[in-house]
């Protein structure tokens, strides 16, 4: 049957209402987009300062070089302008022509020298600027990644923070880099403008306000265009995210099979096309409005520039200004208007990038607030007992706790099992035990010490986790295991030993380059593994970590029966002297656990060993009997 192309509206468009409306958490950003021209001017010094601080942090030497060279180049142009005035002055004074030319020569020589100096300084400044730009990008990217990985795990479940991260990543880093670039432009144009303005003010004070007036409409139009663009991006961010996610899924290897099996290709293509259309229509609308305001601004600026020249003519006509000064003033007006316009554009660019840069800064501030506390004290190398006392943990925005008032104890060398139906809170409880989530109520103690008083890294150093969906690192098979203890160099023999423990050795040896095979199809020579093989690799990684607490969150979900049996045999031998927390839906695997905790809606509803729980005839006995009878009847 061919792919059918049903109207995607049937399933997906129900979410459309208000697709372009701003979500509530974007209101602060909306405020930024609503700022007026004056507010923008007020914000400018802070934006420039923060941009320069980032550059300073990236490289002091290069920042200093850019600042000094740009200022010197700007001063050279200012000197050039003043020397042009001198040339006019000389040429237009009364007297015979040779006299006048002679009078103009010193200023002409100065003009040539300043032009040469400006050329040299500008080239040097461009070179320094070229060095600074990638350095700022590097510093901004590293700052973002450092803060992103430094927040506590629960923050990743907070949609507000995730969206802030997306905005910071999407344009914030780029904006951080650009704000420095445009800051340099502002500096250069400002120096040029001060020179032109200074000359004009000396020639006749009335010319200066005329000059400023002429540039205002262009500046206004540029700011308006920036605001329109920013607000559009703000409105479209949710649409873009959905479109990107779908586009990535359509182009990725993993869902390619399911995409075809369910013949959803055309259905999803229609949804991507619908989202693209929304953003295209919006973008065209905004471009039209921006062009209209630009046209208006340019026309008005043109009129006001004409007005400035008329004032100049009037000054000459009424004898309020000498002819020589008039020539110089006309030249200075021309230069000044150009500089003012460029300044308006560069200020506007700073403002425009400033809007995105504030996303970057906002995310950095937010992440600093959410950074994990890091007390000095280290966790004990080998603990005797971990205790959870009335622990409650809720995910951000969740209406009910995922772990609700749970108390349990885990001693060294014990295997405890967490069982329960989907969503009962097993993985969350295991993550609390591993110190990955900090409970809102109750305490987790290691040998009587509250974990909130221990350095989180030292705690995690004592824990090895096999996640439900282990990370498929795009590294070699060897590194995929050795990364479990990346801080301790491991020989190939040691890695192989861990691989044998996790039952991964035999299939790794069958890979094209054995342990050196890159495990990612995205690279040439890369290989991919099956779900079960990845899981065995994850078990090997956990064995390699060699930690006193091993948490296995459904380590055998993708394993075949023989591999599962082998892994549990090894787990038991490994448990000697270590503690194991086992989460599984395969009831047969938990029979031999020292204690079994049965969870329901985040609470422990039963606890004990297999025999006592079976005798109690509760949920555990029901689940166990159900599975056992399924096997018997199979
Ligand atoms: N990252 C998250 N953000 C918000 N809620 C979450 C998150 N992870 C889990 N939950 C919710 O917390 C509850 C407990 O989930 P948890 O994954 O701990 O259950 P589980 O018993 O391990 O489930 P399963 O057997 O399906 O793996 C569920 O209601 C789930 O929807």
From TrEMBL:
Source organism, top-level taxon: Bacteria
Lipid bilayer topology: Multi-pass membrane protein
Keyword set includes GTP-binding: no
Transmembrane parts of this sequence: 66-88, 103-121, 179-200, 206-226, 295-317
Keyword Phosphoprotein set for record: no
Domain ABC transporter residues, every copy: 386-626
SUPFAM superfamilies: ABC transporter transmembrane region, P-loop containing nucleoside triphosphate hydrolases
MF-aspect GO terms: ABC-type oligopeptide transporter activity; ATP binding; ATP hydrolysis activity
Pfam families: ABC_tran (PF00005)
One GO CC term on file: plasma membrane
Predominant cellular place of this UniProt entry's protein: membrane
Subcellular locations according to the entry: Cell inner membrane
Coiled coil: none
Keywords from the UniProt entry: ATP-binding, Cell inner membrane, Cell membrane, Membrane, Nucleotide-binding, Transmembrane, Transmembrane helix, Transport
Protein family per UniProt: Belongs to the ABC transporter superfamily. Siderophore-Fe(3+) uptake transporter (SIUT) (TC 3.A.1.21) family.
Protein name according to UniProt: Putative ABC transporter ATP-binding protein
Source organism: Actinoplanes missouriensis (strain ATCC 14538 / DSM 43046 / CBS 188.64 / JCM 3121 / NBRC 102363 / NCIMB 12654 / NRRL B-3342 / UNCC 431)
